[in-house]
Design a protein that fits this description.
By secondary structure, the protein is of the alpha+beta class. Helices cover 71% and strands 6% of the residues. The protein has nine helices and four strands, in the order H-E-H-E-H-E-H-E-H-H-H-H-H. The chain has a four-stranded antiparallel beta sheet. Helix 1 runs parallel beside helix 7, helix 1 runs antiparallel to helix 9 and helix 7 packs antiparallel against helix 9. The longest helix is centred in the middle third of the chain and has 42 residues. The chain is rod-shaped. The two termini are 20 Å apart.
Length: 279
């Protein structure tokens, strides 16, 4: 193969790596979307507003009632007095309390398991808990889940469209790279045909080069995925809980197969067409 093709092979490697990174991002988001939604669901607080100055025994009884309800995460049931609630809200929203009055009430907050978070189940809990003495009401919202789902769909679609664009770009670079290389090696190829060389023998150096690009691009994606997972784990945030290693492994395998199809398959097809044309 001609040494002049080296810059083109570099660009082919870079473009293939970018394609695989985008494909891997899309796959990671696609495979983990359900898990992301589940974790977000289990972190949505449901609030039970209490009447003022309830005795500790009555508050404990209300907590036990909540824990007994379907799907309630026991360790998430926490009493928050109105002074603490005021500190939390004034810190987050800079609310003015210059008149000295606390506009908040004591609350008990809790979370539901993702498979129990439904409109009907929350209404059943609301009906049950509001029958208890000392409860003013139960409050919840579903917008967070819908917003997360909508944002995940938008981001995934954007990455997929970008990946498709780079696939087209990668194919164009591969086509030009192989064409330029074959043009530079035209005399050598013709000589090999004249002495009776098999097509498989003629294609071997070009396919070896394509495989080399596949391996380099796959290595780049492997490093990217491992680094991304390491950063998420080290962050000690909710994202660390999202990672499922079977999906990560599946993403790596699919990325390698995609690289093989894009680079190796395209190169083989272009060379076959070229050899048919010069026969």
């Amino acid at each position: 193969m001609s040494k002049n093709s080296r810059p083109s092979h570099f660009y082919a490697t870079i473009s293939t790596s970018i394609v695989l990174v985008l494909i891997s991002l899309f796959l990671l988001m696609f495979f983990h979307s359900s898990n992301i939604t589940n974790i977000v669901t289990e972190n949505i607080n449901i609030l039970v507003e209490l009447e003022d100055k309830l005795p500790a025994g009555q508050i404990d009884q209300l907590k036990k009632v909540l824990i007994s309800q379907q799907g309630v995460i026991a360790e998430s049931v926490v009493f928050v007095d109105k002074d603490e609630a005021q500190k939390m809200m004034t810190g987050d929203m800079a609310l003015s309390t210059t008149d000295g009055e606390n506009p908040f009430r004591d609350i008990i907050k809790f979370n539901l398991r993702h498979n129990a978070y439904s409109e009907q189940n929350i209404k059943d809990i609301k009906t049950q808990i509001e029958l208890e003495k000392g409860v003013s009401g139960l409050y919840y919202e579903n917008e967070s889940i819908n917003a997360v789902k909508a944002n995940l769909e938008k981001i995934s679609l954007g990455i997929l469209i970008l990946a498709i664009c780079f696939v087209v770009l990668a194919l164009a670079i591969i086509f030009n790279t192989v064409k330029l290389t074959l043009h530079a090696d035209a005399k050598i190829v013709k000589t090999m045909q004249m002495v009776g060389a098999e097509k498989s023998f003629i294609k071997k150096p070009y396919l070896r080069s394509a495989l080399n690009i596949v391996l380099k691009a796959s290595l780049a994606v492997l490093i990217f995925i491992v680094a991304l997972c390491a950063i998420l784990i080290q962050s000690n945030s909710v994202f660390a809980e999202i990672i499922q290693w079977e999906f990560v492994a599946l993403t790596i395998v699919i990325s390698f197969i995609s690289a093989f199809i894009i680079q190796f398959g395209a190169t083989n097809s272009i060379i076959n067409n070229y050899l048919r044309q010069i026969n």
